[in-house]
Design a protein that fits this description.
Alpha-D-Glucose-1,6-Bisphosphate, Chain A, domain 4, 4 helices, alpha+beta
Length: 158
Amino acid sequence: MKKMTVMVLSTLVMLTGCHASHTEKPDDMTVQRVIEVPNVDKGTLFDTSRMWYASSFNQENSVIQYENRENGIIMGNGLLVDYTFLDEHRIKFYLSTEVKDNKVRITAVGANGFIQGTDDEKVQDRLRDHFKAQMNDMILGFAEYISEPAIPPKTDIW
């Protein structure tokens, strides 16, 4: 029985080692930015960040996986769909937003082995570049949103 267990485990280890997959280094798949927002408290920045999720994603409740107002953290999952010729590639990513008084840090990280549907290195490189460009655009949009007052000051004029 012991020999059988060792043989099964050895086979599993060898098969795992033979599996061909293209994984990215974490640094290759991370886009991060710290946004300074002078004179804005943590609570307001948290609320504005939450509003950005609601306005930027069709179903923010399925995107947001965790949020903690006290700690100033919102975490979620996203999916970017890219088409190469007639092939569809799904690019899964994680998104986190951390807020403090006067600043917000937003980070997008492509999931390990995030590019599915191709083993071609050139296509992988193009998809990685496209992912980073899309995440940079999204983060720039977030920076603009968070820097503008999301809720205009109250007035009696309607």
